């Protein structure tokens, strides 16, 4: 049973953490239980944590890398006035691989990740202890380079990349339709592991930080995370979620901080049928009452009490990935919600969801992975804003076509990619 107390007294898998994937799995990828990443999963509000390979080791130093996008690479013309179709190249469908193509195009249009690949920075950060020997990162970088340096607009085949992703995550062997968000998780996790700047993850002693103020606690937990997980992928995609649990009897409040790679938002319901992204965020962060069988044990009362639980964002990532939970499962079947979720292309203001008011949390949209159809048969496409041209394009496997920004919002939108507005002044 869970307790009302500070971290690490929540035990993974408890009712408190029912909305999370396990925070600290002790096995690496190939051994990871399918329950962690099985989608669609109605009970996971956000469901991703990196696989960790526990190892006793001296602590590896971390360094931070400030990104600059002034230079993209010798062969890439960021002015966009060249005739070469930089970033406007399609990916061939190898047989139900539209889920993969959709995500690859979204990631390829993530400027800092693209530049990381174009400059071959990943080669200087390869993690020699990684059992995959960095083949996935290398293929991902190659593919990104081809998409951005190809002199022909002919679609390219991602088959070498597919070979690597299925070596890393065998569930992608074959040609079945897969969930794009799940694929994104596996891919980012795989890339991260191969370029983790921490050579061997240190075993960190548990520290008593209960007495610290929440902010300080959050910082400590974040630094602890970075001592084990530190890569370009983490720099870009990982944020920190704060979960607060308050006892209804004595008012004791305990907090837990967890890293997140994306947020899985429940789709709000409203009479009119149309909801906003902010409605979904409000639902995600809505205070929940834990009562009855769910009653946690209060750390101060030393007995089970009715408690309230609430999420806030302690640290926003540079790239905020928002997954709309369109798929839900019940005992009989999986169903899809095709609710139109209205989301802003510019200036998504997330400040009301911050633990601290002062935080910078205004985002601009740059890519969307769309799912059309239903659970029996569907198709994935991507809409991406070309970082060099500032224009939106539709990526439908091999076909890439210009589109109006007014068409970006649709009831097919499934995974939204936002970039912190202040991280780059250019739009
Ligand atoms: Zn209490």
From TrEMBL:
GO terms for biological process, alphabetical: protein deubiquitination; proteolysis; rhythmic process
Record keywords, A-Z: Biological rhythms, Cytoplasm, Hydrolase, Metal-binding, Protease, Thiol protease, Ubl conjugation pathway, Zinc
Gene Ontology molecular function, alphabetical: cysteine-type deubiquitinase activity; metal ion binding
Short name of one Pfam family: UCH
Region (Disordered): 47-87
Domain of life: Eukaryota
Major subcellular site: cytoplasm
Enzyme class at the top of the EC tree: hydrolase
EC number of this enzyme: 3.4.19.12
Every USP domain range: 89-421
Biased composition range(s): Polar residues: 76-85
GO cellular component assignments: perinuclear region of cytoplasm
SUPFAM superfamilies given in the database record: Cysteine proteinases (SSF54001)
Catalytic activity field: Thiol-dependent hydrolysis of ester, thioester, amide, peptide and isopeptide bonds formed by the C-terminal Gly of ubiquitin (a 76-residue protein attached to proteins as an intracellular targeting signal)
Designated name of the protein: Ubiquitin carboxyl-terminal hydrolase
Organism name: Salmo trutta (Brown trout)
Gene that specifies this protein: LOC115154102
């Amino acid at each position: 049973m869970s307790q009302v107390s500070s971290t690490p007294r929540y035990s993974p898998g408890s009712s408190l953490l029912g909305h999370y994937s396990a925070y600290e799995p002790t096995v690496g990828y190939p051994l990871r239980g399918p329950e962690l990443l099985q989608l669609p999963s109605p009970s996971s509000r956000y469901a991703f944590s990196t696989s960790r390979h526990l190892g006793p080791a001296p602590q590896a130093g971390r360094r931070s890398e400030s990104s600059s996008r002034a230079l993209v690479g010798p062969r890439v013309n960021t002015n966009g006035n060249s005739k070469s179709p930089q970033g406007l190249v399609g990916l061939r469908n190898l047989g139900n691989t539209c889920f993969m193509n959709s995500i690859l195009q979204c990631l390829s249009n993530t400027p800092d990740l693209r530049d990381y690949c174009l400059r071959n920075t990943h080669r200087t950060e390869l993690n020699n202890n990684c059992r995959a020997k960095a083949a996935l990162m290398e293929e991902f970088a190659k593919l990104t380079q081809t998409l951005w340096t190809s002199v022909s607009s002919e679609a390219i085949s991602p088959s070498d990349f597919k070979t690597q992703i299925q070596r890393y995550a065998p569930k992608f062997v074959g040609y079945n339709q897969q969930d794009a968000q799940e694929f994104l998780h596996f891919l980012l996790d795989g890339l991260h592991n191969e370029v983790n700047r921490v050579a061997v993850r240190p075993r960190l002693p548990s520290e008593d930080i209960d007495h610290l103020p929440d902010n300080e606690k959050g910082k400590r937990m974040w630094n602890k995370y970075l001592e084990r997980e530190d890569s370009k992928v983490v720099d870009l995609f990982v944020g920190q979620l704060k979960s607060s649990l308050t006892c209804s009897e004595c008012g004791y409040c305990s907090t837990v901080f967890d890293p997140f790679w994306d947020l899985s938002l429940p789709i709000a319901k409203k009479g009119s049928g149309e909801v906003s992204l902010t409605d979904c965020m409000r639902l995600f962060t809505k205070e929940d009452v834990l009562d009855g069988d769910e009653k946690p044990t209060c750390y101060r009362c030393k007995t089970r009490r009715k408690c309230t639980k609430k999420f806030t964002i302690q640290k926003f990532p540079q790239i905020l990935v928002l997954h709309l939970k369109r798929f839900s499962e019940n005992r009989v079947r999986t169903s899809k919600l095709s609710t139109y979720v209205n989301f802003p292309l510019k200036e998504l203001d997330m400040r009301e969801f911050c633990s601290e008011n002062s935080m910078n949390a205004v985002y601009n949209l740059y890519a969307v992975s769309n799912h059309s159809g239903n659970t029996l048969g569907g198709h994935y496409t991507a809409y991406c804003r070309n970082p060099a041209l500032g224009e939106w394009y539709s990526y439908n496997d091999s076909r890439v076509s210009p589109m109006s920004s007014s068409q970006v919002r649709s009831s097919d939108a499934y995974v939204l990619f936002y970039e912190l507005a202040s991280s780059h002044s250019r739009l």
